[in-house]
Design brief:
mainly alpha
């Protein structure tokens, strides 16, 4: 029996976080009626995604 509770490697963790944060950023970008709070959250999500891409990405993700 397998579970999803297996710990991720450091690289896998950074990649998962980078992707998940990036996708949530785009979800908010696509929203036409964002609140000021959502605008701030979107900015923080983008910065957090970039931080994680800095550990596992390439120049393509850093721009």
């Amino acid at each position: 029996m397998t579970t999803d509770a297996s710990p991720l490697s450091e690289t896998a963790f950074h990649k998962k976080m980078a992707v998940d944060l990036f996708n949530e950023t785009w979800t908010l970008l696509d929203k036409t009626d964002r609140t000021p709070e959502e605008d701030a959250r979107m900015s923080h999500l983008a910065h957090a995604s970039r931080l994680h891409w800095g550990f596992v990405g390439t120049a393509e993700q850093w721009c």
